């Protein structure tokens, strides 16, 4: 009996049934980036449809927001995002809250093992933007932002 209990605790067979009993959306997906909107937003082809995706936890300077002038270091952040992900397959890992008030998917974005959200912060191309409940990497992101600011990287050295 003790062996059965230990096996259940260690193997957790019920976790493989997660989503089986109810329609639970996937926690991640592979998508093709069809267009980079700016430094922190892309359009992707996902499951046969087009979706706008907003990167979780980061905020790059504006370049295309209506009624808002192009902000300092916005073009550089946008250009980096273009070079990195446009026309590429990325893995989207969704946050606890899947969509923002504009209907965009909210995701952590990975390309060939690179954590794109974190890379923007590390290079000084973004500031942190923590909106609970999508705050899984908030501490890590803040540390990357502080390190970039102290080193004067990107927007921290010019804006």
Task: Give a written overview of the molecule.
It is a single chain. A hairpin with a 2-residue loop joins β6 and β7. The N and C termini lie far apart (66 Å). The chain contains 5 helices and 8 strands. The protein has one domain (24-158): OB fold (Dihydrolipoamide Acetyltransferase, E2P) (Beta Barrel), CATH 2.40.50.90. Helices cover 30% and strands 31% of the residues. The longest helix is centred in the C-terminal third of the chain and has 14 residues, at 138-151. By secondary structure, it is α+β, with helices and mostly antiparallel strands. It has helices spanning 2-11, 74-85, 116-122, 138-151, 155-158, and strands spanning 28-38, 41-46, 49-55, 57-59, 89-99, 105-111, 114-115, 127-129. Residues 2-10 and 12-21 have low confidence and may be disordered.
Q: What's this, in brief?
A:
With about 160 residues, this protein is α+β, with helices and mostly antiparallel strands.
Secondary structure layout:
Elements (H helix, E strand, L loop, with lengths): L1 H10 L16 E11 L2 E6 L2 E7 L1 E3 L14 H12 L3 E11 L5 E7 L2 E2 H7 L4 E3 L8 H14 L3 H4 L1
Parallel strand pairs: 3-6
Antiparallel strand pairs: 1-2, 1-5, 2-3, 4-8, 5-6, 6-7
Helix pairs in contact: 3-4
């Amino acid at each position: 009996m003790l062996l059965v209990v230990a096996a259940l605790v260690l193997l957790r067979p019920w976790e493989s049934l997660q989503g089986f009993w109810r329609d639970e959306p996937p926690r991640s997906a592979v998508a093709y980036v069809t267009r980079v909107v700016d430094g922190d937003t892309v359009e992707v082809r996902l499951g046969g449809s087009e979706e706008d995706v907003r990167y979780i936890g980061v905020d790059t300077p504006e370049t295309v927001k209506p009624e808002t002038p192009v902000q300092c270091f916005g073009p550089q952040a946008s250009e980096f995002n273009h070079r990195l992900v446009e026309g590429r397959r990325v893995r989207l890992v969704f946050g606890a809250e899947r969509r923002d008030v504009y209907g965009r998917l909210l995701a952590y974005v990975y390309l060939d093992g690179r954590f794109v959200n974190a890379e923007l912060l590390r290079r000084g191309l973004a500031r942190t933007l923590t909106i609970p409940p999508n705050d899984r990497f908030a501490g890590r992101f803040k540390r990357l932002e502080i390190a970039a600011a102290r080193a004067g990287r990107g927007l921290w050295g010019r804006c």
